[in-house]
Structures are given as structure tokens and as C-alpha cells.
Amino acid sequence: MLARLSIVLDAEDVDYHKSSLLQGVLLERLDSKYVNFLHHQQMHPYSQYVYRTETGMVWHIQTLNKEAYEQIIVPFAEGKDFFEIKHTGKMVSMVRKEIEMVKKEQLMADFYNEAAVHSLTFEAVTPMAFKQGGHYAILPDVRLICQNLMQRYSAVSGNIDMMDREALEQITDNVFVARHRICSRLFPLEGHNLPGFCGSVTLRCQGTETMARYLRLLLSFGEFSGVGIKTAMGMGAMRIRRDKR
Q1: Could you give phi then psi for residue 239, rounded to 5 degrees?
Q2: What is the mean pLDDT of the chain?
Q3: CATH number of the domain residue 29 falls in
Q4: Taking the complete model, does pTM exceed 0.90, yes or no?
């Protein structure tokens, strides 16, 4: 089960630059045993980020399985409607909370029932980056994007192993960045600035319809999991652009 808690904040200056502090706010409200469990996970079963919309600044807290939903979203949604950002002393009110849930079975149903689309555009709405060979990769790379999503899906899906090396090789050979409109952005974290990119990226699949459907499934999952490094701290948030036409 995938879930998203969207919280409208009464604070115009709380943007992605404070996302890592918001992770601290989130963890403070969780059961200490579950927090300890999270600290030992290589792939976190949640992501969070803050993003400006027409209604103001919105904090999104997203979980990737039922346990994470019950341990993270439920207590936060039912808790106090304000919080303090440590190190700044700033009090922030939560104006409105909304929960959206999508069953993973729905992603699979869309895989089989929805027509294949060979061109998909996603927006990196907070800085996205990858770690490769000890360095930061800050350009959209098909292999890095899909590999990261396959690993994340496998980590939270029990018996389903999406980390198929052959499938990854086929995607790498048949999917390419058709166009992009990106810019570099720095993400502040504990006194350092991590490099990344924001903006739109269009991926074009020249492979089979099955491959195009699989790419869409991965990116749809990525809207909840985030992509790349530090997604639990606010990096790597993405949204698929769904044009009505």
C-alpha cells in the first residue's frame, strides 16, 4: 500500500531548504522502537518533501507499505496541528491534512490495463542526485533512475523482486532522455550543500509495449518513493506530468 499525507503549512518560508529539519519533526512523533528500526534500514519505507503549490507550502509525507503507513502517517495525521522546527524555534501551524492511498495492486492493474505510453515526462520538484563511484551524479541518467526505483520497489514489496539485471540492461539499451529542461540546485544538509538537479525530464522508450508499461510502473511508484539519494530528508521528489491530451 502506498500512501501520501499532504499537509498545508501556514509558513511561506518553509521550503525544501528546511526539509532535513522537517525529517527531525517527523521522527520526534514516532514510536522510539520504530525510529530505531528506520535507522537500520538502507532503503527507507518512506519519503518526505515540501513543495510550493497554489494553496501555499505543502509538506508531503509518503509511505511505501502498510507498516510504515500505520507507524508514520497515522500518528502524524492524528496528532497536534502545529510543530516547532528545532534550531530555529519557529512554530508552524498545519492548516489542512489530506491522505491519499494507492494499492500496489492498482499499479499492476494499470500495467496490464492501461495503454502503453512510449514518452513520459517527470518533474524533479526537489533536488535529485545519485551516488556513483564515490561521486555525485547530478544529471538525469536512465540507468541510475530505473535501478534506484527497482531497488526501492523490491525493498518494500516482500516477495516481489523488481531488481532484474536483465530487465535493467534492456531498459538502459532502449530508453533514453529525449529532452530535458533542468537546472542545478544545492540541497543544504548539516552544514553542507549537496548538488542535484530540478526540472523536467522526458524519457522515450523505443522498446516493446511491455517495456513502456514497466517504465510507467516504476515512475508511478517513484512519485511516492522519491528517486536517488536522501529522499527521507527531502531530496529526489518527482511527479509524472499527465497532460489531458
Answers
A1: -140, 135
A2: 92
A3: 3.30.70.1890
A4: yes
